Task: inverse folding
């Protein structure tokens, strides 16, 4: 795993801090009244850079200036207007600064907390952003890394109550997000379902979250013919990851049930996908990775609420043992499903996993899945689709996502979507038409939620960034980890 930098809140003079570079976030019309020395040393140079167009002061723009300090450079990072600063902006500014520092060979950085970045919520976001910037996606390259490794992140200008908690929370959430990204980035030849389960075991060790791994025998004994049906075509055996967080002495309910799609590779099966872009389908377990990452964070953050996590993991492969179009499978809930397209496999896994989360006592459900290309078409790479049956529950998941910096946007559920899912010989077919594909998939999944408050997040578009941004490299985003952890924290807090 990526080695974590040492994070420390420090006092004292900026000029004397042991670092290679000092990050100074700045806003439109910033007069640097609070940093007179920085203003005196760098003000003229910043103004000259602005005049020649090198520094425009747009969010995430960076500019470095030399200073006669122990750290020889200041890196200014622009944050835009000083009003309306959100946690997400702070997180991104911190990540952009840390990535820029790494590009400039800095291993030890100081982040100055100032102006609209003051307060414990921003401090947490700065820590999260700095850690998100340590994620390296090129871990299989044998040539040396292009970016320097951050060894220390010192935080200057933060003091008062809650500082230590904010740093601890931010580092747990940032690190857990990176752990999920690392799993998602890994190719399917090494991250098999079995390996996924053992990685989950190491990630959960010492966190207070238990992990039980069910093999194909137990999956079939539970009657999970939908999950089992998808898994059959692969030489790699399936695994069902069952995670439990049960804080001592806590009330029996509510129980948060988290379910994540864990397809370690999706060829489409007999309804095989085109070759173009199929390599990307190693990320079809991003929902499962988000649940594992969130369970790790939840164990470490210790909110006062019970949580169960269920991740069905398998490959979707064509072969002599594969399930086929026209087959009828029976899930653990007893419902029968006629397969019309073996590429609509995610909903089959979710159906059995949601049923199992209910068996384990979940009272409130959230699932995350790279479920449909249609959702990515509808909402692009910016927003996950959020579907829900219970307004209050949906609103609380949405609020957690907003706080965590995971963007979600509502898409409709409606009974009429099920009209195209009628089967002549079974209870339901598994794949609808092209139209409204994200909603028909969600309606299929809804059939297995037993009328519990349930939210479905379709993360097909957001789990993998195709383009680098100043604050985020290409590759897995870790979408959902912080949302789920925040949700558990919110429920835990309201019960104290
Ligand atoms: N894993 C895919 C969805 C997907 C597509 C994720 C593109 C990320 C990017 C899923 O299993 C799938 O194949 N869905 C089909 C459903 C269809 C057959 C009804 C799809 O979206 O085309
Ligand atoms: Mn598929
Ligand atoms: Zn899939």
Result:
């Amino acid at each position: 795993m990526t080695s974590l930098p040492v994070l420390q809140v420090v006092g004292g003079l900026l000029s004397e801090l042991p670092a290679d570079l000092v990050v100074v976030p700045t806003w439109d019309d910033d007069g640097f009244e609070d940093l007179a020395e920085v203003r005196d040393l760098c003000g003229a140079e910043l103004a000259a850079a602005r005049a020649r167009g090198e520094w425009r002061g747009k969010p995430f723009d960076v500019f470095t200036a030399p200073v006669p300090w122990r750290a020889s450079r200041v890196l200014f990072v622009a944050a835009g207007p000083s009003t309306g600063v959100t946690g997400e902006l702070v997180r991104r500014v911190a990540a952009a600064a840390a990535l820029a520092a790494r590009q400039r060979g800095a291993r030890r950085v100081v982040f100055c907390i100032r102006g609209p970045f003051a307060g414990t919520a921003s401090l947490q976001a700065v820590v999260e952003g700095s850690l998100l910037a340590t994620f390296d996606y090129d871990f299989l390259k044998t040539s040396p890394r292009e970016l320097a490794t951050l060894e220390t992140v010192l935080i200057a200008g933060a003091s008062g109550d809650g500082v230590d908690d904010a740093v601890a929370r931010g580092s747990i959430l940032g690190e857990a997000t990176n752990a999920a990204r690392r799993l998602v980035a890994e190719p399917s030849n090494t991250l098999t379902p079995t390996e996924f389960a053992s990685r989950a075991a190491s990630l959960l060790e010492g966190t207070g979250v238990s992990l039980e791994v069910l093999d194909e025998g137990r999956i079939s004994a539970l009657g999970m013919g939908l999950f089992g049906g998808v898994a059959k075509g692969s030489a790699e055996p399936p695994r069902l990851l069952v995670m439990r967080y049960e804080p001592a002495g806590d009330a029996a309910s509510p129980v948060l049930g988290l379910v994540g799609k864990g397809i370690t590779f999706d060829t489409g099966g007999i309804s095989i996908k085109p070759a173009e872009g199929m390599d990307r389908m190693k990320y079809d377990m991003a929902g499962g990775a988000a649940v594992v990452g969130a369970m790790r964070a939840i164990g470490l953050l210790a909110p006062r609420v019970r949580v169960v996590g269920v991740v069905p993991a398998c490959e979707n492969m064509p072969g002599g043992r594969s399930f086929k179009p026209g087959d009828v499978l029976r899930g653990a809930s007893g419902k029968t499903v006629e397969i019309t397209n073996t590429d609509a496999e995610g909903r089959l896994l979710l159906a059995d996993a949601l049923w199992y989360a209910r068996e384990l006592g979940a009272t409130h459900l959230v699932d995350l899945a790279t479920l449909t290309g249609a959702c990515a078409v509808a909402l692009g790479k910016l927003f996950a689709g959020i579907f829900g049956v219970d307004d209050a529950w949906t609103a609380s998941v949405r609020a957690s996502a907003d706080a965590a910096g995971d963007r979600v946007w509502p898409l409709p559920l409606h009974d009429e979507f099920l009209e195209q899912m009628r089967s002549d010989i079974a209870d339901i077919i598994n794949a609808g038409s092209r139209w409204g594909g994200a909603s028909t998939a969600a309606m299929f999944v809804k059939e297995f939620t037993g009328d519990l408050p349930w939210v479905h997040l379709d993360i097909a578009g957001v789990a993998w960034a195709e383009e680098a941004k100043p604050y985020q490299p290409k590759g897995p985003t870790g979408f959902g980890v912080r949302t789920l952890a925040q949700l558990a924290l919110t429920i835990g807090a309201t019960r104290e």
In short: The pocket of zinc ion (ligand 3) is lined by residues 263, 266, 284, 345-346 (CB under 6 Å). The first strand starts at residue 6 and ends at 10. The mean pLDDT is 96.
